[in-house]
Design goal:
This protein is an all-beta fold and 348 residues long. It has helices spanning 299-302, 340-345, and strands spanning 6-7, 27-39, 42-52, 59-65, 71-77, 83-84, 90-93, 96-99, 102-110, 117-118, 135-144, 147-156, 159-167, 173-180, 184-189, 198-204, 214-219, 226-232, 243-246, 251-253, 256-264, 270-277, 285-288, 310-318, 321-328, 332-339. The longest helix has 6 residues, at 340-345. It is globular, with a radius of gyration of 19 Å. The structure holds alpha-D-mannopyranose. Alpha-D-mannopyranose binds at residues 89-90, 99, 137, 153, 155, 160, 185. Alpha-D-mannopyranose is lined by residues 89-90, 99, 137, 153, 155, 160, 185.
Length: 348
C-alpha cells in the first residue's frame, strides 16, 4: 500500500451481519466509525450501528424515532416527484432532509484488539428526545482521570449537533445535552487539561461564507465551550478540498499535539491526514501533511454502503504505535497501525 497505514490482515474486523439488530424488524445496514477506549484492561469499541429495514425495489425508507421513542419507518416510492435520492446516506423529501438509516452506539470489547464481542452487561446507547430523532453517530471517547467523555453527532430534523454524555463505569451515564449546536460534528476532546482548561476540536459548517473547517474551543467544565478559533481549512484542488474534521483525541508527542483528521473532496472521497498543534497553545498549527497518510485502497474501503471512505475517530496508543480503528466504505469496522515517528516525519 502506498500510504503510511499498516492495515490488519484480519480486516474487516466487523461486518453488519456480526451484530444483531436493536429491534425485531430492523436490519443492520452498516457498522462504522467507532469510538475507542481502554477499560478493565480490554480494548473497547463504541461502534456506530446504522439500521433500516431490508430494501425493497421501487421504494426508499427513512427511519426515525417517534414521540414515544420507538423507531418508525417512513416509506416513499422512488418515483415520487417530491423525492431527491442521489446520496445513499441522505435524502430530501418535500424540501426536508432525512437520513436513510438511523444510528445508535454499541459497546464491544476485546482482549487482543482484533476479535471483538458484545457483553449483555453493557447495553447499547440510543438517541434520546427530539434532538436525536434521526440517531446518534460517530462517538469520540476521551478519558480524563477516571471520567470518560462521549462526544457524538446528534441528528434530528432540527439539525446536526454535538451531544455529550459522561460515564465512569459504562453502565451509568450522565446526559449533558447538546454542547455545540447545529451545524456541528466531529468533536474530539483533548485528554489532558492545558493551563487548567479543557480543549476540544470541532467542526461547525457554514453553507454560505466559510465552509467545513476544524475549530478549537476551550472549557472549564466540559459543557460550556468558548474562545472558538478556526484552525484547519479545506484546501482547493487537494484531497481535502470539501470538508475536514477531527478524528479521535489529539495524541501528545514531544513535538506537539498530533491530530489525525479526515478530509473529503467534492466527490465525497474520504482520506486521512495529520496536523500538529503547539503543546502549550493548541491554536498554533505547527505543521500539516500535504498528502494523505491513508487513502482508500482495499476492496472493503473502495466499495460498500458508501465507497471510497476511510474514517477514524478513535485509537489506542502504545509507545510509537498508534492503532486506529476506522470505518471503511461506511459499512465495515477495520483496524490499522501507524508509527507516530513516520507521521511526524511527514510533518515538517
Ligand atoms: C453525512 C454523513 C452521514 C451522516 C450524516 C449526519 O451525510 O456523514 O453518514 O449520517 O452526515 O451526520
Amino acid at each position: 500500500m502506498n500510504d503510511l497505514a499498516k492495515r490488519f490482515p484480519q480486516n474487516p474486523l466487523l461486518l453488519p451481519k456480526d451484530i444483531a439488530p436493536s429491534t425485531a424488524g430492523l436490519q443492520v445496514i452498516s457498522l462504522l466509525n467507532p469510538g475507542v477506549f481502554t477499560f478493565h484492561d480490554k480494548t473497547w469499541l463504541l461502534v456506530r450501528v446504522a439500521e433500516s429495514i431490508s430494501q425493497k425495489e421501487g421504494v426508499i425508507y427513512f427511519p426515525l424515532l417517534n414521540a414515544t421513542g420507538n423507531t418508525e419507518i417512513i416509506e416513499v416510492p422512488l418515483n415520487d416527484p417530491d423525492l431527491i435520492a442521489t446520496d445513499a446516506r441522505v435524502i430530501n423529501y418535500k424540501g426536508l432532509d432525512y437520513l436513510t438509516t438511523i444510528s445508535h452506539l454499541r459497546l464491544l470489547s476485546s482482549d487482543d484488539g482484533i476479535h471483538f464481542s458484545e457483553d449483555t452487561e453493557y447495553p447499547g446507547l440510543f438517541g434520546q428526545g427530539y434532538l436525536e430523532r434521526f440517531g446518534i453517530e460517530d462517538c469520540r471517547v476521551a478519558q480524563i482521570g477516571d471520567t470518560y467523555y462521549l462526544t457524538f453527532t446528534a441528528v434530528s430534523d432540527n439539525g446536526v449537533g454535538v451531544g455529550l454524555w459522561t460515564t465512569r463505569d459504562w453502565r451509568h451515564f450522565e446526559n449533558k445535552g447538546i454542547i455545540l449546536s447545529p451545524h456541528n460534528k466531529d468533536c474530539a476532546i483533548f485528554e489532558e487539561k492545558i493551563r487548567n482548561m479543557l480543549y476540544c476540536l470541532h467542526r461547525p459548517s457554514s453553507k454560505e461564507i466559510g465552509g467545513n473547517y476544524i475549530w478549537l474551543a476551550e472549557s472549564g467544565d466540559g459543557t460550556q465551550w468558548g474562545n472558538h478559533q478556526c484552525l484547519i481549512k479545506t484546501r482547493p484542488g487537494m484531497w481535502d478540498s470539501a470538508r475536514v474534521g477531527a478524528g479521535g483525541a489529539p495524541v501528545k508527542t514531544e513535538r506537539g499535539w498530533l491530530e489525525i483528521y479526515h478530509g473529503a473532496n467534492e466527490a465525497h472521497q474520504y482520506c486521512l491526514g495529520a496536523f500538529l498543534m503547539d503543546l502549550e497553545n493548541p491554536s498554533k498549527i505547527i505543521a500539516r501533511t500535504v498528502d494523505p497518510i491513508m487513502a482508500p485502497a482495499e476492496p472493503y474501503e473502495l466499495s460498500g454502503f458508501f465507497g471510497y471512505v476511510v474514517f477514524t475517530n478513535g485509537h489506542i496508543l502504545n509507545g510509537d504505535q498508534l492503532t486506529i480503528y476506522y470505518g471503511a466504505a461506511d459499512e465495515f469496522v477495520c483496524g490499522a497501525t501507524f508509527s507516530i515517528k513516520e507521521i511526524l516525519e511527514k510533518l515538517i
